[in-house]
Write a structure and sequence with these properties.
Layout lengths: L1 E8 L3 H12 L4 E4 L7 H5 L6 E4 L7 E2 L7 H6 L2 H10 L4 E3 L4 E4 L4 H14 L2 E3 L4 E6 L3 E5 L2 E10 L14 H8 L4 E7 L3 E2 L2 H7 L6 E7 L5 E8 L3 E3 L1 H7 L8 E4 L6 H11 L5 H5 L5 H11 L10 H12 L1 E3 L3 E2 L7 E6 L17 E3 L7 E2 L4 H14 L3
Parallel strand pairs: 1-2, 1-10, 2-7, 10-20
Antiparallel strand pairs: 3-6, 4-21, 5-6, 8-9, 9-10, 11-19, 12-15, 12-18, 13-14, 13-16, 14-15, 16-17
Helix pairs in contact: 1-5, 1-13, 9-12
The structure holds dihydroflavine-adenine dinucleotide (FDA).
Dihydroflavine-adenine dinucleotide binds next to helix 1, helix 2 and helix 13.
């Protein structure tokens, strides 16, 4: 049986980064992954340009049953540390918007950077290798499709369930349960919504249309960002962000005119433009096809001068607080992340080590830590991996 200091299961963002840090400390590290390539999600991230971090990182951009859990790791390995590493490798990058940093060329730059660091640090990578069983005796014993391994420290970096075709599996959750850890209910998130059967026919004609909206969830969280209508449902940054805060069965409130108070604007406009129809009035603010759809569904296209005070109020409610009940989401097939996962109870926020099983660590997305869209999930992967990498 081969004996090493550290085995890391999962050669994604967190697993690779942890291996680099641990190997730099002189630990003998083996990274095992059942996929045939390391960092597949890095390659497909950010539309092929990897949004690798954000200029503004803090606990407020993360969801977890313990909202304080992320504090320690995020403050010890910051976005500036990772940006420094990227710069050191000569990787060109830019801020797209909202502090989101993307590679100028390709996500491959980040994957290659990690692999170069891994090789230099002396960690070994075993791809296309299944982990068949894990047992804790004096240390950890693993049976894999490529032989048996023993290690003092076992790091679980198997990520979440999104994009099963990229190697996602529930291995981390099963292993956590085997070792006495609780799993917080999990589901696909940062994910597009699907139509309910009533809306599908009416709205799918508008597929491809994008418009800025403000969307609000039941718990009062809101995002003012673009929405995209697709033939399957509603997508775009606004909807992906709010999906972190949506519970199945709940409705969402969409403000189609986030910059306009409909009541005030109609009252102001009807003196000057009283003969304008509702449709042409609306088309000043939103795409004409959307204006037409909203007016058709509203059921009346009166001229502004003829709208009663009660009608203006109903219209304002309709346009500024449009209620949308999703049929569901597109699920793990297109989701960027899994919300929920291995509970942070009984995991040290400083070292990411299990408080039930010394020597066992959980890092990255497998944990019940989910970031907003915008580079936050990778920053969590780097920071949690770094923290574990100092001690495992
Ligand atoms: P990750 O999923 O990266 O790695 C897990 C590894 O474990 C994989 O290599 C997998 O093969 C392996 N594994 C799983 N089960 C195993 C088993 N049973 N045995 C062995 N190995 C196993 N985030 C962000 O911040 N900016 C962005 O631009 C994007 N963009 C983006 C696009 C798309 C399409 C997706 C799906 C996701 C993103 N994300 C993102 C999210 C980001 O990719 C994600 O949060 C991190 O990759 C999580 O890193 P981990 O290392 O925890 O898991």
């Amino acid at each position: 049986m081969e004996q090493v200091d550290v085995v890391i299961i999962g050669a994604g963002a967190a697993g690779l980064f942890c291996a680099i840090e641990a190997a730099r400390r002189g630990r003998q590290v083996v990274v095992v992954d059942h996929a045939n390539k390391a960092g597949k999600k890095i390659l497909m991230s950010g539309g092929g340009r990897c949004n690798f971090t954000n200029l503004d990182v803090g606990p407020e951009y993360y969801l977890s049953q313990n909202p304080h859990f992320v504090r320690s790791a995020l403050s010890r390995y910051t976005q500036w540390d990772f940006i420094g590493l990227v710069a050191q490798h000569g990787i060109a990058y830019h801020e797209k918007e909202f502090g989101q940093l993307f590679c100028d060329h390709s996500s491959k730059d980040i994957q290659q950077m990690l692999l170069a660091e891994l090789t230099e640090a002396g960690a070994r990578l075993r791809l296309s290798t299944e982990v068949l069983s894990v047992q804790r005796l004096a240390d950890y014993h693993l049976e894999t499709s490529a032989g048996s391994l023993r290690c003092d420290s076992l790091v679980i970096a198997t990520g979440g369930l999104s994009i099963p075709t990229m190697g996602a599996s529930d291995f981390g959750y099963r292993l956590a349960r085997q070792f006495g850890h609780h799993i917080v209910d999990y589901r696909a998130s940062l994910v597009p919504f699907t139509w309910n059967s009533r809306d599908r026919e009416t709205w799918s004609d508008l597929s491809g249309l994008a418009t800025p909206v403000r969307v609000e969830s039941h718990n009062g969280t809101s995002f003012s960002l673009p929405l995209l209508i697709t033939h399957r449902g509603l997508s775009g940054p606004a909807m992906l962000q709010i999906s972190n805060y949506w519970q199945p069965g709940e409705s969402l409130i969409i403000d189609w005119l986030p910059q306009v108070d409909v009541t005030e604007q109609i009252v102001a406009d009807r003196h000057r433009h009283g003969r304008k129809t509702l449709k042409s009035w609306l088309a000043q603010f939103i795409p004409a096809r959307l204006a037409e759809q909203l007016v058709t569904r509203y059921g009346s296209n009166e001229v502004l001068a003829e709208l009663s005070r009660a009608e203006v109020s109903t219209l304002s409610q309709y346009l500024n607080q449009w209620e949308f009940t999703p049929g569901g989401t597109e699920g793990y097939r297109t989701a960027e992340v899994t919300l929920g996962g291995v509970s942070t109870d009984n995991i040290s926020s400083k070292t990411l080590e299990s408080q039930i099983n010394p020597g066992l660590y959980f890092i990255g997305e497998v944990l019940d830590v989910t970031g907003w869209l915008g580079g936050y999930n990778f920053q969590w992967a780097w920071a949690s991996a770094w923290a574990a990498g100092q001690v495992c």
